[in-house]
Amino acid sequence: MKIYILVLLSIILSSPGVSAQQIPDVKLDDLQGKSFNTGLLNKADAKVTVLAFWATWCIPCINELSTVNDNLDDWKKKYQFDFYAVSEDDSRTINRVKPLVNGKNWDFTVLLDKNQDLKRKLNVMNVPYTMIIKGGKIIYKHSGFVIGDEEALLKVIKDNQ
Fold first, then answer.
1. Could you tell me where the beta strands, DSSP code E, fall in 48-112?
2. Per-residue pLDDT tens over the stretch 62-101
3. Dist. CA 91–CA 72, nearest whole Å
4. Contact 128, 145 (CB under 8 A)
5. Is the peptide bond before 24 cis (omega within 30 degrees of 0)?
6. Strand-by-strand arrangement of the 35-37 sheet
7. CA nearest 160: which of 129, 128, 136?
């Protein structure tokens, strides 16, 4: 019985809600070649930040980012947060990222995780995968996307202002 309780506690504490994991220090480039250091997200005074992992070949990813883009201006008028789309496209598909972003008129920063270093260090298995960070801690994780998931994302942003 004690083992069962310990296993159950372990499952509850490791569930995909809140995590004590910090963001690893990884340098990523944006579409203009400007470098971004993910370690900066670990500052205690850093604002709420959303990282949305995606790839050009992933239809749910494109649907998620298009939905977020459609709402982003309204959300940013009400809440203080940063939003980054982290492309997991590798050397075979990286050339598709910029044309897709421009074609969709996405108005947020896209970071390129060409070697999937950040994805690996954060144990992201599949895309789309979205996480919210506040004060250097991961406070929300979500895998997949269906219409309506953006409301849960907004609620976490709102609740952590």
1. 48-54, 81-87, 109-112
2. 999 999 999 999 999 999 999 999 999 999 999 999 999 9
3. 29
4. yes
5. no
6. 35-37, 27-30, 109-112, 81-87, 48-54, 129-134, 137-143
7. 136
Residue corresponding to tokens 């995606």: 54
> Which two three-digit tokens encode residue 29?
């480039």
Question: Which amino acid type is present at position 93?
Answer: T
Let me know: does 155 contact 73? Beta carbons within 8 Å: no
> How many Cβ atoms are within 10 Å of 28's Cβ, its own excluded?
21
Q: What is the pLDDT of residues 110-143, one digit of tens each?
A: 999 999 999 999 999 999 999 999 988 999 999 9
Distance CA 108, CA 122 (A): 22
Give the length of the chain.
161
C-alpha closest to that of 51 among 87, 85, 18:
85
Token pair 């939003």: residue: 83
